[in-house]
Design goal:
Structural class: mainly alpha
Largest sheet: none
Subcellular location: Cell membrane
Pfam families: LysE (PF01810)
Number of helices: 10
Mean pLDDT: 75
Shape: flat
Main location: membrane
Protein name: Lysine transporter LysE
Helix content: over 70%
Oligomer: single chain
Number of strands: 0
Strand content: under 5%
GO molecular function: amino acid transmembrane transporter activity
Length: 202
């Protein structure tokens, strides 16, 4: 399952859940599930020209995504914990669309997921075959539902502990999660450049 590894996206969704509640965490995670489904659809349809474009522009996708991650991490790290804590005590639906879009675009900034799905769905191209088309639709539905269920389960589990946190704990959660996200983003940024990438891969 592409969604399960808890990279920077997972850390960010956990932070959103702790800050705003289970619904906000699930909505944020849905952004990742929809982006994964978009990548899976490209792989299932066998859109070679899209895959070739993604491979050719991988550097720019990763570069922009890494900078975005660093900025998001720094924003969380520098956030006003008192204001966030007050909002978390009476969470509403405000800002959830923004959370969804943030995670959606962050997930899209890692287009190599297309190759992952391509390897998983090898032979599942839906061109001109009704049976293959049905199979492809089931695969895409599986990616969407599987990803959504995972983020729902994660946000639900995290939310069980949320009410136990107080201002001091929220302060450190923001600092630690923001720092982790920023560091991971910076490592992705470094990996965009060949000499450093070779060193990190060695």
């Amino acid at each position: 399952m592409a969604s399960i590894p808890l990279g920077p996206i997972g850390v960010l969704i956990i932070q959103k859940t702790l800050q705003k509640g289970r619904l906000a965490g699930f909505i944020s995670g849905s952004g990742a599930a929809v982006a994964d489904t978009l990548f899976a659809s490209i792989a299932v349809l066998g859109l070679g020209f899209v895959i070739n474009f993604i491979q050719a522009q991988e550097f720019y996708f990763r570069l922009v995504g890494s900078i975005f991650l660093v900025l998001v991490g720094l924003r969380i790290f520098l956030a006003n914990t008192v204001k966030q804590f007050k909002k978390s005590q009476a969470p509403g639906k405000r800002g959830m669309f923004g959370d969804f879009m943030t995670i959606f675009f962050l997930t899209l900034s890692n287009p190599i997921a297309v190759l992952f799905f391509g390897a998983m769905f090898a032979g599942a191209s839906v061109f001109g075959d009704a049976h293959s088309a049905t199979t492809g639709l089931y695969l895409l539905l599986g990616v969407l539902l599987g990803g959504s269920l995972w983020w729902y389960a994660l946000s639900t589990i995290v939310d069980l502990f949320r009410k136990k946190f107080r201002l001091k704990q929220m302060f450190w959660i923001n600092k630690i999660s923001g720092l982790i996200i920023a560091i991971l983003g910076f490592l992705v940024f470094l990996s965009c450049f060949d000499p450093i990438k070779s060193f990190l891969d060695s």
